[in-house]
Amino acid sequence: MVHSPTGPHPRFLLVPASEPQFPHLQTPDPGDPVWNMRWALCTRRSSGAAAPGSGATIFALSSGQGRCGIAVIRTSGPSSGHALRILTAARDLPPARHASLRLLSDPRSGEPLDRALVLWFPGPRSFTGEDCVEFHVHGGPAVVSGVLQALGSVPGLRPAEAGEFTRRAFANGKLNLTEVEGLADLIHAETEAQRRQALRQLDGELGHLCRGWAETLTKALAHVEAYIDFGEDDNLEEGVLEQADIEVRALEVALGAHLRDARRGQRLRSGAHVVVTGPPNAGKSSLVNLLSRKPVSIVSPEPGTTRDVLETPVDLAGFPVLLSDTAGLREGVGPVEQEGVRRARERLEQADLILAMLDASDLASPSSCNFLATVVASVGAQSPSDSSQRLLLVLNKSDLLSPEGPRPPPDLPPHLLLSCLTGEGLDGLLEALRKELAAVCGDPSTGSPLLTRARHQHHLQGCLDALSHYKPSKDLALAAEALRVARGHLTRLTGGGGTEEILDIIFRDFCVGK
Ligand SMILES: Nc1nc2c(ncn2[C@@H]2O[C@H](COP(=O)(O)OP(=O)(O)OP(=O)(O)O)[C@@H](O)[C@H]2O)c(=O)[nH]1
Hints:
Gyrase A, domain 2, Rossmann fold, six-stranded mixed beta sheet, 3 domains
């Protein structure tokens, strides 16, 4: 939709050409065809964010909504400097990248809006690569809306759409796609581990790794193509193909290792599934309430209280977790409880980490014995390096164990003693959870960068599949094609040749002002 410069703007008024507020500045002329064209470009809307370089200068509140001490409003685009001069009623721009105190006024009425810090970032040394301005204003709603209205009245400026600043940074080569994803994750990070992981991705670690792999493939491709062109030529160095082969096989090993690890990064991004299970009355609901620090489940001395799966998001030892309380596992019950038990078993299959819970004072009961037999079987089946499903055995109600009474039998699998009632043993449980979750989600502070999205996994798998067709001893032309396809996957992972739909999906994660 194109708004006429003389017609009504949906939200903001234009400065009438006949009322120049700042005579020393160029006043927009709605009769000027060049100005008209610029206005049309500035106000053009598409289904997604406007294409960078369209000439539009965008503005938005970049700090959160609502009353606050300081609010940051920013602009990006060619008219940023012009807007800054208009709002500060100044002929000159402030020194670049230095905070300057300025009085901001409404260009339509000259009315003072706020005394604010302004920062001028001439492109390309800015977040978006374009000319940018930041206004650090007092965070009252009237100030913020006054400044936004004032900016909207400056010709060539329009409100930004969600993610548009970042999209421009991407288009101008300031961020690659994995860094954009890292930035989106950082904005959404709710736990410490998510923040660490997102920051590493924003710092470009994953992109750097992929670029290194792509370079290896480019080199191998150059060697293979040289061999195709000059294979018979004596001048070609010996062992060229062999060297390419060694590098491609090493790359396959590295890709395989990352793919085996692939689900960890995704769990870190979207939350690991932790399921509490055990016989009725073991204290499962009490543990879920304790770990989530809220009354998610009903706690009662009546066995079989929890009938359905109750799920709650929790920050456990810095890791994002979807914690599920489930019905107590037992046989010979009514249809409703039976359905609860079926759902509990179903949820257990999806668990990344199982918290198997027993009443420490009731280990000899049939339901405890049956449950324990299942746990022992699953612990035996678990290899220490297996990160697909992990298990922690917790003996609750330790407060009911008297020092002179029977202690848990020595042949029990490794377990933790806990009392949900007194909190005794909780620190030990949290530490054990931290270790287990680091195994399930990967430790974001160490090791190689994690693959945090299915998209990453898809391209690495595509790369690996393509390399399986790399057989230079059989057919050099096909081998070269395999290298090209493999390299294409790595390039797309960092956003090269990315389709618009992928960009739209990724930028949808952003808020306005970012
Ligand atoms: N003494 C003692 N009692 C506990 C402890 N934890 C839970 N309880 C009590 O044990 C009873 C059962 O607790 P719940 O948390 O409802 O147990 P549950 O495993 O969810 O029970 P179901 O819903 O039947 O599967 C309640 O009366 C709790 O107050 C504990 O550490 N010590």
